[in-house]
Design a protein that fits this description.
The chain is 34% helix and 22% strand. It has 260 residues and is α/β, with parallel strands linked by helices. It has two domains: 183 residues, Rossmann fold (3-Layer(aba) Sandwich), CATH 3.40.50; 68 residues. Helix 6 packs across helix 8.
């Protein structure tokens, strides 16, 4: 399997494990059943599967935004406050707050003043290319820029794990491709781990070191594919035979999952 630098290496040290996870809601809906998944440190893992298969539910459980009905979530390296960042499908920015204040929010909730974390906030904005927009308001930004603010807010606490729930689904293709490239560059530079939910096989192949395919509800893993192509990746990869081959493989597994 590839490590985060694109070199061939051994298996990475586990960061989080889901063991036999079941999630049932009060309505009687069983979203996940017997979900086993291990995420290694510095991996880029995409979750794909039919709508309603529990991809987003799995992310929320990892983030601590809910508890499994059965099974457990383990953190072999230990977990502390701020170790997990979450980027939702919508940017969920505060419309009355500036870009700076939106990114400051995680620190504000901890009781830290703007002055105390000025450098951290501006550093996060610089990482996503928005240092010059710290005083702007969300209404003044494009869709892609709003998503960059959301990513900066998730990264400002320097998490070990970044969870992303279809963050680019609503964007046009050109903006989506650009943010894919920028995300990979940040991931390689910062060395955190990413778990990325997408409905796009093509996006998952381009971004990921692993693609985890989940079956229709109740969600469970039916395939775990390694994408053994070095990083960094660019347009040459998108037009390569290797890319097309992995897309076909992932598509075949997805179609099989829809019949499970």
């Amino acid at each position: 399997m590839l490590d985060a630098t694109g070199g061939m290496g051994g298996s990475t040290l586990p960061l989080v494990r889901l063991r036999g996870v079941r999630k049932a809601f009060s309505t009687g809906t069983v979203a996940l059943e017997g979900l086993d998944l291990t995420i290694g440190a510095h991996e880029f893992v995409s979750l794909v599967g039919p709508s309603g298969c529990g991809k987003s539910t799995a992310l929320r459980l990892i983030a601590g935004l809910g508890q499994p009905t059965q099974g457990r979530i383990e953190w072999p390296q230990g977990e502390t406050l701020g170790d997990v960042g979450f980027v939702f499908q919508e940017p969920t920015l505060l419309p009355w707050a500036t870009v700076f204040d939106n990114v400051w929010l995680p620190f504000r909730l901890r009781g830290q003043s703007r002055a105390q974390v000025q450098d951290e906030v501006m550093g996060a904005l610089d990482m996503v290319g928005l240092a010059g927009f710290s005083h702007a308001y969300p209404r003044e930004l494009s869709g892609g820029m709003k998503m960059r603010v959301s990513i900066a807010r998730a990264l400002v606490t320097r998490p070990k794990l970044l969870l992303m729930d279809e963050p680019f689904a609503a964007l046009d293709e050109i903006t989506r491709f650009k943010l894919n490239d920028d995300l990979l560059a940040l991931w390689q530079d910062q060395r955190w781990t990413v778990v990325f939910v997408t409905h796009s096989v093509y996006e998952s192949v381009y971004l990921s070191s692993r693609i985890v395919v989940m079956a229709a509800r109740p969600g469970r893993v039916v395939a775990d594919l390694a994408v053994d192509v070095p990083y960094p990746r660019d347009e040459r990869f998108r037009t390569s035979g290797a890319y097309n081959g992995y897309c076909r493989l992932a598509s075949d597994e997805l179609h099989r999952a829809m019949g499970e």
